[in-house]
Amino acid sequence: MASTVRVRFAPSPTGHLHVGSVHTALFNWLYARHHGGVFILRIEDTDRSRSTDANIDAVIDALRWLDLDWDEGPPTPGFRQTERFALYREHAERLVRAGRAYYCDCPPELLEQGRKAAEARKETFRYSGRCRDRGLDAGALRLRIPDDGTTVVNDLINGPVTFDHRQLDDWILVRSDGTPTYNFCVVVDDVTMGITHVIRGNDHLSNTPKQILCYEAFDYPVPEFAHVSMILGPDRGRLSKRHGSTSVQAFRDEGFLPDAMVNYLARLGWSHGDQEIFSRGELIELFDVKDVSSSGAVFDRTKLEWLNQETMKRMDDRRLAELCEPFIERAGLPVPGDRAWLARVVATLKERAKTLVELVAVGRFYFVAPSGYDDKAAAKFLTAAGAERLDRLIARLGSADFAPAGLEATYRGLAEALGVKLVDLAQLSRLAVTGTTASPPIFDVLSILGREETLARLRRARAAIP
RNA sequence: GGCCCCAUCGUCUAGAGGCCCAGGACACGGCCCUCUCAAGGCUGAAACACGGGUUCGAAUCCCGUUGGGGCCA
Question: Rounded to an integer, what distance in angstroms lies between the CA atom of residue A33 and that of residue A445?
Answer without folding.
Answer: 44
